[in-house]
Predict the structure.
Amino acid sequence: MKKIIYKAKNNLFKLSQESRKLKRPSFDELIKFRNFKKKKFNKFAISFAGGRSGQNWFSKIFNSHSNWIGSCERFADYEAFYRYVTYYKLPINKDEFYNLIKLNSKRDMSMYQNCLISSPYLSFGIEDIVTKLKPDYIFFNIRNPINTIESLYKKGWYKNFENKKIISPSIDITEDQYRSFSRIIPKKDFLDKWLSLTRIGKITWFWTTINKKIYNSFNKIKNIDKYYVKLEDADQNYEFYERLSKKFNFKNLMTKKKFLNVVNKAENKGDYDKYIYLYKEWSKLEKKEFENIISTQFHYYNKIKTNI
């Protein structure tokens, strides 16, 4: 029943003006805005995350207001490829990708005044992105590791990597190209160890690797407004929304009921019919791998505080 209700609400959202705002523009449309000059009243924000962190929902909050457009994974195919080439440090010129994101921001600011671009695929190039695109604000969206790993497991991460001998970097032919580029694996020395881990261990490595990269990049970046958003603090929290609205000057404050319904506008909740492998069901080995990887590779989660 939950699945039916969610799909019905989501289909209604697809008919709305908010949904039409998010339609992926063609390149021919984007280049019409190449001469747009950003003004003081135009604000540009970028959200970075590791996936399954509420980032899609967060962008929909911004998109719910007439003076903002908040998009997530609008160019998912290019963005996933960007993750691939930046993580593996492949000798590929990325200037046209930066130009794509820049043109997208110009179009959005021209049409809606303010723009938030969200993607879990940008996180290995944060310093270059901030230098080249010059956003006014950056966000780090993060969710606690247990719930994130449960969600990634449910979504099928690394399900076809068991009992395989793989050379990194690689292409996963068991998935479509978009997912293959997004599902990175370790480089060099740690790969053999990683291949011997359970799926939970492999996904834990991913969670720690990407969030550590974001965390370290945020610490290096200066002279920009940086915001940390823990899903546990923000999720369905109307007081958080009121602070967010004040900070970013949202027009037409949503009622609590409308704010709580934003979750039904995000398409990325997952399939209700798929089994969720909860932490309490993990084996002793899976829990041991989880604890070891978290403690040695990214033990900063409890230090991160939501600062909105």
